[in-house]
UniProtKB/TrEMBL annotation:
This is 6-phospho-beta-glucosidase. One of its GO terms (cellular component) is cytosol. Signal peptide: none annotated. The keyword Hydrolase applies. It holds the Pfam family Glyco_hydro_1. SUPFAM superfamilies: (Trans)glycosidases (SSF51445). It comes from Atopostipes suicloacalis DSM 15692. Belongs to the glycosyl hydrolase 1 family. GO terms for molecular function: beta-glucosidase activity. GO terms for biological process: carbohydrate catabolic process. The keyword Plastid does not apply. The active site is at 363 (nucleophile).
């Protein structure tokens, strides 16, 4: 078993969870600034002091030191996002904020100093708040034009600095978190399926449109979609449970199908018919989707779930936005996310068999409560063997998928430096190789400490995966 020589090892973050500096250098407010309890929590009128995302881990002022640590681990690629509201504070302006553009210029220059390729998400759960309040987010078709203007601006500015781009982070999450994912201010209980799927159509058209724009600006751009992947096993061999698992997975496949194949699949057309949903296509939408499919499929993978035709018989579990019924054969993390390394191999094979496109694992990791302790050299560290085991076991399955013949571009583990959780807005749910001294109550020095996993991942990259333990 071996990883390709050009395999892109690295880590992933998002601007809204770690940048901080929420009101500095002309940045506007985003949906994240008014959800202090996380993406599913209450929405406040204005930012409140208990919102840890406002300061994040202050990457805005620490990025040089942090990138130096990423380089020490040997990163080949680093996934981050551009905060739309740092470039266009309200989202609908025509003239960008130069200070915001300059920040990302400096960030990308710092990455290139260490030969680290940026992998940039255009929209990672941080729709400008003005677009939510004035337009109800992606329910309004006008957002397509605003997003095109934003994408054209950053594509042009960074055309020689960024090669790899993602359009929308976990685009299928809008089904379950319409405000966090789609900037839709209408409360979920009042949001009709018609309006939700019309909003999804607007996002998919916008994704195809900026893919076209990007390829026109630089034909060498590699532009991908980003999907939550979560395989759903039938709870029993009952064919009704098998069908339930297929229906669950089709909710997610809808988004990758349209991104990769350029058209709405038949199963969603039946769903629309049975639920009186009629998607309004503007002139040119069908052609735009068909002619501007993605160059690769990227996805997050944290857990699998199970599906049943009789959900009332079982308890439900939490999990990366989608949740589900617990699998009795799997253990779970402190937050109830079931650990299933083999599920990652299944996802990789399923995506590749379905699309024959390169795949990129851009999120995978274990959120856990870490404790600083004194290490062998007297320095403070975290003995996070539980994280090493989780990542090792998942990377073993990535290697198995490569042996299966799957084309995999790279792997960026989630939260390579501790950041604020998107789902819960906690600091105590830590994913990183680097511990950041900040607490759930907002206290802390922001000092960085290398965890045991820092040195482990460094060896993984140095050996190109040869040191993984099966």
């Amino acid at each position: 078993m071996g990883f390709p020589k050009n395999f892109l090892w690295g880590g992933a973050t998002a601007a809204n969870q770690y940048e901080g500096a929420y009101n500095i250098d002309g940045k506007g407010l985003t949906v994240q600034d008014v959800t202090p309890k996380g993406g599913f929590g209450p929405i406040t009128e204005e930012p409140t002091p208990d919102n840890l995302k406002l300061e994040g881990i202050d990457f805005y002022h620490h990025y040089k030191d942090d990138i130096k640590l990423f380089a020490e681990m040997g990163f080949k690629v680093y996934r981050t996002s551009i905060a739309w509201a740092r470039i266009f504070p309200n989202g609908d302006e025509t003239v960008p904020n130069e200070a915001g553009l300059q920040f990302y210029d400096d960030l990308f220059d710092e990455l290139h100093k260490y030969d680290i390729e940026p992998l940039v998400t255009l929209s990672h759960y941080e729709t400008p708040l003005h677009l939510a309040k004035e337009y109800d987010g992606w329910t309004n078709r006008e957002l397509i034009g605003f997003f095109e203007n934003y994408a054209r601006t950053v594509f042009t500015r960074y055309k020689d600095k960024v090669k790899y781009w993602l359009t929308f982070n976990e685009v299928n999450s809008v089904l379950h978190a319409p405000f966090m994912s789609g900037g839709i201010l209408t409360p979920p209980e009042e949001l009709s399926q018609q309006d939700l799927y019309q909003a999804i159509h607007h996002e998919l058209v916008a994704s195809a449109s900026v893919t076209k724009i990007g390829h026109e600006i630089n034909p060498n751009f590699q532009i991908g979609c980003m999907i939550i992947s979560m395989p759903a096993y039938p709870m029993t061999p009952n064919p009704k449970d098998v069908l339930a698992s297929r229906h669950f997975e089709n909710q997610n496949y809808l988004f990758s199908d349209i991104h990769a194949r350029g058209k709405y699949p038949n199963y969603i057309k039946r769903f629309f018919k049975e639920n009186d949903i009629e998607i309004k296509f503007a002139e040119g939408d069908e052609k735009l989707l068909a002619e501007n499919t993605v160059d690769f499929i990227s996805f997050s993978y944290y857990m699998s779930t199970t599906a049943t035709s009789e959900p009332d018989k079982y308890e439900t579990s939490s999990g990366n936005i989608l949740g589900g019924v617990p699998n009795p054969y799997l253990e779970a993390s402190e937050w109830g996310w079931q650990v299933d390394p083999i599920g990652l191999r299944l996802v990789l094979n399923d995506f590749y068999d379905r699309y024959q496109l390169p795949l990129f694992i851009v999120e995978n990791g274990l959120g856990a409560k870490d404790q600083l302790v004194e290490g062998p050299d007297g320095e403070l560290t975290v003995e996070d063997d539980y994280r090493i085991k989780y990542l090792n076991d998942h990377l073993i399955q990535v290697g198995e998928a490569i042996e299966d013949g799957v084309e995999i571009m790279g792997y960026t583990s989630w939260g390579c430096i501790d950041l604020v959780s998107a789902s819960t807005a906690e600091m105590s749910k830590r994913y990183g190789y680097i511990y950041v001294d900040r607490n759930d109550d907002g206290t802390g020095t922001f000092k960085r400490y290398k965890k045991k996993s820092f040195y482990w991942y460094k060896e993984v990259i140095e050996s190109n995966g040869e040191n993984l333990q099966s």
